[in-house]
Design brief:
207 residues; mainly alpha; Serine Threonine Protein Phosphatase 5, Tetratricopeptide repeat; globular
């Protein structure tokens, strides 16, 4: 399921949406299941369908009733959900909480995801300078280990910041880094968001 809806949602996500709907309806309260269903829902716009379960897991994590890793996963999903809802202050608060957890419990690998949420929020709020500083941190961390996923998320935040600044050409270039024009790069989930930018550029070359 996750391979289809998270790994390559543009090509394989739609086929398993009925199955995902059933999983959401029976998500229950097991922290591991909540996170797995959440991960499967990120790129097919279904996080909101069980927001209550993710929020509950965040609350459990804050009281020590859920494992730290599951708490982190819930913060990631709820933060991203809030960003898409336009609840930017809430998203930024959850991201800050996640970064503190990463530092306190030595889960530094996950820090980039929360930095991405912060960068996206800053871009959406017109704070291009803060967004740029955060994406630079992500890229500097990701480059030595070849963590392409983190770099692609940074590209998305950079595209948003460029759009907010009215620099449409730079936004287009960042979108093309995610996925070349008129294609959707397989197994780059966030590539779909790149297509939303370059598809609106009438003069986009065929690549």
């Amino acid at each position: 399921m996750i391979t289809q809806t998270f790994g390559d949602p543009a090509r394989t996500g739609a086929a398993v949406l009925p199955q995902l709907t059933e999983m959401i309806a029976t998500v229950g309260d097991d922290p591991t299941r909540v996170i797995r269903v959440g991960t499967a829902s990120v790129f097919v716009d279904r996080l909101g369908d069980f927001r209550w379960a993710t929020r509950r897991l965040v609350d459990q994590g804050r009281t020590g009733a859920a494992p730290v890793r599951r708490h982190l996963g819930a913060l990631m999903h709820l933060g991203l959900d809030y960003f898409h809802l336009g609840r930017w202050d809430d998203a930024a608060q959850l991201a800050a909480e996640g970064l503190t957890l990463c530092e306190d419990h030595d889960y530094r690998f996950y820090a980039w995801y929360f930095q991405y949420i912060q960068a996206a929020v800053a871009a959406a709020q017109g704070d291009a300078e803060t967004s740029a500083a955060l994406t630079e941190q992500i890229v500097r961390w990701a480059m030595p280990g070849g963590t392409y996923g983190a770099r692609s998320f940074a590209c998305h935040a950079r595209a948003l910041a460029a759009l907010g600044s009215g620099d449409f050409e730079t936004a287009y270039q960042h979108a093309c880094t995610l996925s070349p024009p008129r294609t959707v790069t397989p197994y780059v989930p966030i590539a779909m968001w790149g297509t939303m930018i370059w598809s609106r550029r009438p003069s986009a070359p065929a690549g």
